[in-house]
Amino acid sequence: MFRKLPGDPARDLVSTTPDTAVVFRPSVVQVPAIVTVLIALWRFLGGTVRTIYRHPIACLLCLGLAWLIYSVGWQRALLLILAETGLLIAWARLERASFCALVGWRLLAWYRWMWIYRRHWQPTMVISGLGRTSGGREFLPRLRKVTCDGWADTVRIKMLSGQSHEDWEKRAPHLAHAFGAPSCRVTVGKPGWLALTFPRRDPLAVPLPAIPIKNVPHPEFAETGLREDGKPLMLRVHGTHLLIVGATGAGKGSWEWGIIRDRLPLVRAGLCRLWVCDPKRMELKFGHSPSEAPGKTLFYRYAATPEDCLTLLEEAEKEMQRTADAFGGHVRKHVASLEYPHNIIIVDEVAFLTAYVDDRKIRDAINSRLSTLSTQGRSVGFTLIAALQDPRKEVLKIRNLFPDKIALRLDESDQVDMVLGEGARDRGALADLIASDEYEGAGVGFVRLEKSPIPIRGRAGYVSDDDITDMVRDYGQHLAEVI
Ligand SMILES: Nc1ncnc2c1ncn2[C@@H]1O[C@H](COP(=O)(O)OP(=O)(O)OP(=O)(O)O)[C@@H](O)[C@H]1O
Q1: Which parts of the sequence bind ATP (predicted)?
Q2: Ligand 1, pocket residues at CB < 6 Å
Q3: CA-CA distance, 148 to 283, in Å (whole number)?
Q4: Which segments in the chain show pLDDT lower than 50?
């Protein structure tokens, strides 16, 4: 207990906070012994109940162990424990999935809670500025729970009152370094709560092979690669438009080819049509004879020069309007059929057509066709997929009309928000830090879907020239009508 004595001479005083104007001197209050004992008992009881509530399994284990030693003696108890450990090891080896789900991840979470997060929590909070000191007292965000799965730790925390998730997003790199993780992702939970995700390993660190073609692909989602949590990366390709942005060599081609590859069974069944503008004449394999142009035999329409690309887009636009007229008033949602298939229009290096073509008339007309397709196409089964290197608005005016976006390796950090939307980089989409080494970084990107502000990190499977040759052998139908 302290009594405040303003103005007392400093030499006689005890201060809890050095160098402050307000000073305190302890005053002794006599308390009956029974009160002290009752307070200590109350605290002990409260602590016990809290520990049992927070760690029921650990408490049960300790109690069980004590009971075992008491009832059979320590030698037999030791033998039993060794036998149980042997059983657990056998279980882990024979049935890894069920062992991890029931025991393994819990044990790992407990170890990481004790050894990584709890041990470094206080210094990390203080040094990163997420903890506060007021009136000599330290206030730290609460570390509540750690859970583990195959690729990451999820740490649930309670923020200090007055903090917001943005304070934490700005400190994400500090937290990642402090806890020895390659990155930290911040997700908002209920008010005042956050989940911090710290990956332990990166399944995207090595190139992935092309995803095997399914006999019956999902009508709306194309599987193009792997997410960083090890799950398949499913991209919506129906009822949306997709923008893919990446510096030269970032691997845009593998995303485009991944989508084409996944749709091939639907193309063969007549439920999907691929329209391709390929101004570079390389990405999608243009050539002057069928042997030089394997990719073309998979496409419904193919164009390379700006004039031909414009003709292709005009035709697509007319087709879209015909479908809209047919649907008008009685069909609300497009479902692919033989009469009205799903149309995917892939425009590689779209900036060349929208900004760099010399002929202004062609440029304006292409911009106008792309605007119409992107504003009216998705409800009638027309999906626009555009790839480019430079995300500036001057280069692609319709950038904001793409509901889904992918940022591959980018040259500058401010390009990330240009592609994925405001605040995406703070939420962990560090596309400017993706390795420029092909082996490590090509095809790696952050996907921002329309319905979620959280960017998903993933890598496209690499569709090699041999894969394309196989695709043409198995699915190539006829030489695309080259416009
Ligand atoms: N998913 C991937 N996994 C591993 N390596 C890849 C992947 N995608 C592409 N690569 C490698 O990166 C190289 C460049 O890829 P790609 O041509 O697709 O890049 P890009 O972004 O289209 O570049 P540009 O805009 O210059 O054409 C490829 O030759 C290939 O070796």
Answers
A1: 246-253
A2: 207, 246, 248-254, 283, 389, 438, 442-443, 459-460, 462
A3: 41
A4: 1-2, 286-291, 479
